[in-house]
Structure formats: structure tokens, C-alpha cells
Amino acid sequence: MNVEVINPFINSVLETLEAMIGVTPDREAPYLKNSPRTQYDVTGVIGFIEEDLHGSIALSFPSRTAINIYNLIKGKGVTKMTREVQDLVGELTNIVANNARKILTEAKLSFHISVPTLVIGRNHAIRHQLNIPVVVVPFRIEDDSFMLEVSMKIQS
Known about the structure:
By secondary structure, the protein is of the alpha+beta class. Helices cover 35% and strands 29% of the residues. It is built from three helices and eight strands, in the order αββββααββββ. The longest helix has 24 residues, at 83-106.
């Protein structure tokens, strides 16, 4: 997988959370995903398709991390997973995808993106396109963790 396709999404995660909660997450070492299962509770997924680029991204959070980010953004004291917290995960995924989209479009890649889909439940499965590797980029904000999955291919 081409880092020119992955880096816009990584940078978008960093910039989005810095802008929204005033904290830049720490990025950990990326790795290739070898199972469709996630280790987290709620995931936003967006697909990319067109002649130049196709694939998908997923932004996955444990409940605790999603709730903590929601509370930082909204200034509330939510203590359990709510529809609003879940919707925030979808919105964060959308923002990350659209910010990366701007960079990829400047690189003259043409594509469309889908609306975010939420997948909820402990150890749920996210099936990206089977013929495209999935790169997982873990992030940390203090004791909270989350991950970005990128499965993208530039068409030749």
C-alpha cells in the first residue's frame, strides 16, 4: 500500500482531534491487519470509489475513549455509550475522510466517498475489500486508545 494514500488519513486524524479537543494523539507503529475483527466497541466506516482510488477507512474506538472524546468536545459528563456518542464517531470519521480527501484531490486523484456507516458491538468485524491490505494505525490520548484502518488502492 502506498504511503501517499495512508499519510493524508493519519495527518487528518491528528489535525482533527487537535482542532476539536486541543490534544494531538500519539501515533503508534502501524501494522497489517490479519483479521476482520476489531478489539473496540464502535467504528465509523467510509468507502472510497472511483476510477483513480478505491477502498475504505475505519475509525474504531473503545466505548471509554469515545465517551471521553465526546465529553471533551461537548463539555458534558456522559458516563455511558449513547446515540450521541455513537453519532460523534460517525462524524469524526466523516471529518477525517473529508480532510484527507482534500489532500488526495490535490494529488489529482478522482473519487467519491460514501456516508459514514456505524458498526457497534464488542469485537465486531469490519470487512474491507478482500484484495486490498488493511493498514492499522493505533493512536493514544493519555490512557485512551483508538485506531485508524486504511485499505486503499490507487488504480493504475
